[in-house]
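Predict the 3D structure for this chain.
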Amino acid sequence: MDIFFFYITWLGSIILLLPAGVSMIALFRKTLNFADMLLIIGGLLGASLLAHLLKILCARPRPTVVTDMMVNMPPDFSFPSAHTAQAASFFVALGLLASRDLPMKTGVAVWLCSGLLISLVGLSRIYLKVHYISDVVAGAILGVLWVLVLNWLIHAVLRGGGHA
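Done. Predicted structure below.
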């Protein structure tokens, strides 16, 4: 389990998700419009920024760990989990796009995989002892809410309607 969670936690890292998002946009540039690109990249960057601002505002210390750790304790504060917020924003954005553009069975599969990956990233942060459960839950809520708000804003501004 140590090795599994050590690697799965990277699915919430901006170091991996930002290049993945940019690559996805490059690969699907003919089928994605500006609003889609904005949802993917703006969702990820916005969730990351919000999570790090909340970390500074809340200033909650990381868990105290007395046993050996697999990863170094991150230098920033604990609340909320930025990895979980980033994973939630990225994978929910993909789910929204899949729901719109893919057959229903494929869209459902994307949503199920997205939910699983978000959950695994959150669990990895707890397993690796770098976050409390409440940090992970708050990060997931933050990431989901940010992408839903951004999706609504994109539709309201770019498409002239308030319905997402």
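Helices lie at 2-8, 14-27, 34-58, 82-101, 104-127, 133-158.
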